[in-house]
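Annotated sample (chain length 158).
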Amino acid sequence: MAKMDDATRMRVLAGRLMLAGKTPAEAAKAVGVARQTAYTWKARLDEGGIDALRAMAPGRPAQLDGAQLDALGSALLQGAIAHGFGTELWTLKRVRALIERLYGVRFSEVHVWRLLGAMGFSSQKPERRAIERDDLAVLEWKRKTWPALKKSVSPSDD
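Output written by the structure step:
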């Protein structure tokens, strides 16, 4: 038999208390949850017994399954240009638009941020440097041209 997590253990304990004659309110108090939660568990208990409480998935069901998240990760690695954006920079708005385009699911930017973090992506700040930059030419300009352009202020120029 698989080990139960804490939430499952609490549901099963509350279910056993209710089967033993306790009210949902008493069971809720005993396990430390809200009364409404215990009433939800009671309805599930009445429908399918203790096994139904064991099988309950906590929280809201995910809107994207594991395969969709894997495909999203692959799509992000293809780059933003491959998905019709003007530059290679992925922003939360762009990722959000991509998710909506691919799967028809709308997420807030905050949720997209969390989702990307859970997928192993981190925020990166792009370098503010021209792609065509020639470091040798810049160095030569700084050594030769800039000193010639830079003049000292003379007292008569005031």
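Annotation: The chain has a mean pLDDT of 88.
Annotation: The chain has seven helices and no strands.
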